Structures are given as C-alpha cells and as structure tokens.
Amino acid sequence: MTRDNVPAPAQLPTPRQPAGGACLTAAISQGAVQGAVRSITARLVDKFLTNPPDWLRVLWHALPRPWE
Prior knowledge:
Residues 1-20 are annotated as: Disordered. By secondary structure, this protein is mainly alpha-helical. It contains 2 helices and no strands. It has helices spanning 20-50, 54-62. The longest helix has 31 residues, at 20-50.
C-alpha cells in the first residue's frame, strides 16, 4: 500500500448537548424537590424534638449510655 491509498481516519460523531431549556427545567424541578424534602424534614425534626411521642421516649431511655 502506498501513502496515497491510506484511508482517512474515521471521525467519531460529537455528542449532542441537551437543549438549554431542558437542563434549566430539570435543575428547577430538582431544586423544588430538594426544597420540599428539606421543609418536610425540618417540620418532622421540629415536631419530634419539641414533643416526642411516647414510643420515641421509650427507645431513647432504652439506649445504652456508655458515658454514664
């Protein structure tokens, strides 16, 4: 084979980027989900810390305390 008969290297297709609107929509919805989870978690933690139910109090007192 001579130099003139060497085939050109094949070019790989470039990956396509998603449309800018799709990324923005996904980021907004992910932020909304994270905000909702944080809000629910904060409410539950606040509720259980200020007025824990009896079963939680029993579990807390049943825990071994190595520091005592």
